Amino acid sequence: MGFWCSFLGFSPQFWHFLSPWPWGHLGTAVTAVSPRAQVERVITIMQNPRQYKIPDWFLNRQKDVKDGKYSQVLANGLDNKLREDLERLKKIRAHRGLRHFWGLRVRGQHTKTTGRRGRTVGVSKKK
Prior knowledge:
Oligomer: single chain
Order of helices and strands: HHHHHH
Low-confidence stretches: none
Number of helices: 6
Strand content: under 5%
Shape: elongated
Structural class: mainly alpha
């Protein structure tokens, strides 16, 4: 599990979904073959999760803005999608995009007393 979970977009929950334990749905299909074939099998499942009856709510990219499809995005693709989403939000001047642009908290946290690290407010000394 540790090897697979080191990839971006591959969570421990996804591994348990593929695991050979009783709660794993596709475990026997993955672990019943040689290690090299096992790696190829997991990669194909990750690239086409809907063909293997993995539910839509389990995927990390739901209802993509451009094409409206559900998919599991991995590694660099996940970083690219996140960057594209933030750029789109900034471009349309959405509240969430503006908060990202200003470097403020986005998800409704309080900002009066917490989160003061990182930015410095210039106070000049007396001479």
